[in-house]
Amino acid sequence: MEDAISPVLRLIAVRSAVYFQREFHAPWGMDVRDTGFAQFHLIVSGGAVLIGATGETKLEPGDLVIYPTGAAHRIADCADAAVQPGQEVVQAIMSGAKIFDGDGTATRLICGHFDFDFASRHPLVAELPERILLKAHDVFGVQPLGNLLSILITESNSTQLGSSAIAERLADTIFVTILRAYSLESEDATRFLSGLKDPRLARCIALIHNSFPEVPSLNELAQVAGMSRSSIALNFRRVFGFAPGAYSTKWRLLQAAKRLRQSDDSVETVASLSGYESAASFSRAFRNLHGMSASEYRNSAR
Fold it and tell me: Contacts from 143-147 at CB under 8 Å and sequence distance 24+?
């Protein structure tokens, strides 16, 4: 049986881009606007200050910061540094222009973004915080994240054939390992990710995913978890905040929403492929979750 998280990552369709690895000399600063992408910065050497809604944070070599929801922020050599729009900085680097090329202290950093489908409304996405900060000891002390980031540093600074493509595919994998490290190392990990640390509940979530479009019974969930029916129902709701049946319904409807966005299948076909015998019952359930009909959702998404 497949693990609990991989189907979710396919649902949200993670794609990554590495903008640059560059050495900036003080004074330097970037104003990163809310682009709708999950921006990330990895400090390779030197240091920086991060300024956002959560205040100022000093970054040191090996620190990795992500803004999963794309929240606006600034990153600079010091808190009062003048900043340039991040998009202009990227464009200047892509065009080969010199930027932040002074005589001050040097900081080398890798910047890029993770793009995923916020429309999925899965708890993994809905619960993500404004910022995830992994300190160097969390990053390079966790395998395989440390190894992957070391390779990313090498490939993003290379001019060899295929280096850019390798760096971007690495970034896709790094996003998954970041979530793993975040769930293990952070006391503020999301409710869904924290719940998956319980192997019994993780097996239940995996069974729900792998049973699609069927809905596993409480007996089946109890069997795979090695718990009683009453215990699995109680613990599932206590940890995740919803009942197993509610999650099964949500999972089917999220899969249906993805098919509506990506295919031309009729609503009746989508309902059937999502495990609903009645198009009417599917339509009611879909409207309850998404606040609109399946046809309206498809038109809106496109």
Answer: 144/177, 145/174, 145/177, 145/178, 145/180, 145/181
Into how many domains does the chain fold? Answer: 2
Q: Would you say 273 and 265 are in contact if contact means Cβ atoms under 8 Å apart?
A: yes
d(CA 172, CA 164): 13
- Of 12, 17, 37, 35, nearest in space to 119 by CA: 12
Q: Based on the domain organization, do 180 and 207 belong to the same domain?
A: no
Residue 274 lies in a domain: yes
Decide: 129 and 53 in contact? Cβ < 8 Å. Answer: no
User: 3-class SS at 300?
Assistant: helix
> 235 and 178, same structural domain?
no
Residue 159, pLDDT score = 81
Instruction: Give the pLDDT score at 141.
Output: 61
Token pair, residue 300, equals: 């809106």
Do residues 115 and 243 both lie within one domain?
no
Which residues in the chain come in under a pLDDT of 70?
119, 138-143, 185
* Confidence at residue 124, expressed as pLDDT on a 0 to 100 scale: 87
Residue 284 and residue 23: Cα distance in Å, rounded? 55
pLDDT in tens, 70-119: 899 999 999 999 999 999 999 999 898 989 998 999 999 999 998 887 76
* Residue-number span of the structural domain to which 84 is assigned: 6-190
Element of type H or E holding 34: none
Instruction: Judge if the upstream peptide bond of residue 213 is cis by omega within 30 degrees of 0.
Output: yes
Both 225 and 263 in a single domain?
Answer: yes
For residue 252, the domain's CATH number is: 1.10.10.60
